[in-house]
Amino acid sequence: MDVEKWLEQLHVQAGPDDPIRAVHWTEARPARYRDVSPPLLPAVQQALERRGIHQLYVHQALAIEHARAGRHVAVATETASGKSLAYHVPVLEALLMDPRATALYLFPTKALAQDQLRTLLELLEALGPGAVRGRRQHGAAVAGTYDGDTPPDQRKQLREYGRVLLTNPDMLHAGMLGHHVAWGAFWRGLRYVAVDEMHVYRGLFGSHVANVLRRLQRVARHWGASPVFVLCSATIGNPREMASRLIGQPVELVDEDGSPRGRRCMILWNPPRVGHPPARRSANLEAADLMSRLVADGIPTIAFGRARVVAELLYRYTRERLERLAPSRANRIAAYRGGYLAAERREIERRLFQGELLGVCSTSALELGIDVGALEAAILVGYPGSIASVRQQAGRAGRKQETGLAVLVAHESPVDQYLANHPEYLWGRASEPGVLDPDNPQVILGHLRAAAYELPLSPQELDRFGPHAGAVLRLLVEGGDLFWDGRTWRWKGSGYPAGAFGLRTASEATYTIMEAERPGAPGGRVIGSLDEPSAFFQLHPEAAYLHEGETFVVDRLDLEAKVAWVRRQGVDYFTQAVAEQRVRPVVEAGPLLARRIPGGTAQFGDAVVTQLVYMFKKVRFESRDSLGWGRVELPPTEIYTNALALTPDPGAVAAVTAMGAQPVDALWGVANAVVGVLPLFAGCDGPDVGAVVDTGPAGGPAVYVYDRHPGGAGFARQAFEAVEPLVRAARDLVARCPCESGCPSCVGAPLPPSSQTDPDTTARGRVPDKAAALRLLEALLEPAAARVAEPGEAAGLPPPGPPPAATPDGGKEGERIPVPPPVMGPPLPADLEVRLRRQLERMRRFADRRAAGGREGAMAAPPAGR
């Protein structure tokens, strides 16, 4: 692609309101190679050469040497730098040298597993027919994907004969480890475990995955194996630390990228102002114009939207433009997002890889390392929320030595407009670090149950599950899940414990989307699926649902059967749901914990976060004109979770008012800054926590920081325990930020739009007042701030003090259920123990419902009043 010529044409056509705000070039670099010592097996070397690989890059060779030597290794290099060879090559050598050797590949998505299976099968084919045989039988399956889409007969064949298994952490957790006896030969021969796209395993999901890997290593040791881990990642700020946290062992880091890179150009594009009063033109329309022009010129392009509806709108708008500009290419683009059927996604991936498609409009689903062919341009519709994601998405274009183009099209949101005026923020920032907390007691509870089901737990193994494992184990013994046989703790509970909880944040409830002339009519066909929160936004009655650029109107949303009945109807609008969110402390569940900071009160306890979709807006395509509103009559969705309430004293609020600012503006700035620094104090990721400004427990305004996971995940509690250092860190973040009035790095980081909304049609509000937020943060830390009550007095709470002694549910003070030695470790705080007991009870109820054929979710909220 001749980017300079294309840029020149854009400048000429732009006119006086040139949308190009900044252009940043990254210069090309040559490849750097290195020989592997000792040399590769001749058969592997020849197979690589048959695939056009005659030399290995520096990072590939170093990683292979570490893996061969039995050292765990983390490879952190750019997108499309050939990281997968770091595990493919050692695995191929092991398969050739040892007929019993096996390998396990873990990917966060099924699409990635399918993509890497194709690469692996090509390498196996290049080795020559019969060079690698399946276990116990010549010609049996050597490699395959083992996930929810794998047919039963193929699962059986892979279990009995497979040498390389490609799966995801969810299937490993719920489908393999608990049945490891059936996989005995596979585990006995396990030599390598590849963990690809490591940067995805952040926050609560990453904490769960780290515990799955702890369990994997237990099972491998039981069968006499000690596999080497090869972890790969792009765009992460702390690869060595994160890899070590994931597997619980030291790792070697390889981050010297030897792959070649062509020149890359990144453009920051701010849509022009149009209309009266003037407003910026839709980022979706600007992106569709850019994409249609690129595709019409034959330039393979990918466009990323932050929401599913954006991917569909981009596809529709781009296709309409191509029907005028280049009709022969209108059918060479596609939309790609979650909610499509598996067969649809596989077909789009195939067409991309084989070059049948010239363009794809996607959510972040294609941000990961799927080989999407030789793309030359990437369009990012809105700031995706992190520097890491910007680099990951932009890196999908211009792979290898070709010149690549990336265009970030700004929305009219405050964060995007800040970037449009401060483009150096994009070029000069390092990628964000990944954080996780594998030792979180609310995470290890389920994994200790699953581990004991898989194999008896010995006292020596408890340390592998962190410092709280002994105290959590005590609860499991008291509750009758485990018993001591004199040497180990063994499982005696009911059900299948790994099936009682999931690893991700998605809702357990999934709605099927059925196309039919009328609800329940025969001959209907399934066109997709959505999780429950998304369904309430996109599939309420009268919603216009977009699928592959076509519009379907929802006739009925059946909440009991979890089916949305839709019919194809060519309306000229889409719909935008409107919702409100509230937080209510559940004081009836027990007294809130409270502690003072100089200028306010921090309280922690159970809370209900309620979200209600109550109306929708009809928005005309292209013009974004409002065509009217409609009511939505759906029940509110509630998450029973934990929250920190940070309530400023009246004197702290008065300090903000005295400077002529609005307290609510300051509170939102504090909320954004506190959530921004919380990963420094808790092993959470952005989607793990939420922040809301609402009425506090004592009646005044408060900032709530809550866990987004049913039952809580421990992050809000960690924020409570470190509340004063947390507020101080937020104050320092805002004070030291060089911006004048607020930016994405301090107070101006509103939560990104959910996966159901389009930023073009969503009211975003302005960046909170930096000066007001800073004044409130300082007042919260000032001893001189007006003090109106002792901690807890205004809310009717007990003053802070040492936590009460923990007792079993229903027991009297001082009673203990005997726990056999040698359970070690300090006791848990009383309130945390109560929450773990509730979490345990939910898991047991789930097992009972499943045994009775129930389909209710694993994490249903406890009854009101608990």
Automatic annotation (TrEMBL):
Residues 857-866 have a biased composition (Low complexity). One of its GO terms (molecular function) is helicase activity. SUPFAM superfamilies: P-loop containing nucleoside triphosphate hydrolases. Residues 64-254 form the Helicase ATP-binding domain. Residues 797-806, 818-829 have a biased composition (Pro residues). PROSITE patterns: HELICASE_ATP_BIND_1, HELICASE_CTER. Residues 286-442 form the Helicase C-terminal domain. The keyword Nucleotide-binding applies. Keywords: ATP-binding, Helicase, Hydrolase, Nucleotide-binding. InterPro entries: DEAD/DEAH_box_helicase_dom, Helicase_ATP-bd, Helicase_C-like, MZB, P-loop_NTPase. The keyword Lipid biosynthesis does not apply. Residues 791-829, 846-866 are annotated as: Disordered. CDD domains: DEXHc_Hrq1-like (cd17923), SF2_C_Hrq (cd18797). PANTHER family: ATP-DEPENDENT HELICASE HRQ1 (PTHR47957:SF3). This is DEAD/DEAH box helicase. It comes from Carboxydichorda subterranea.
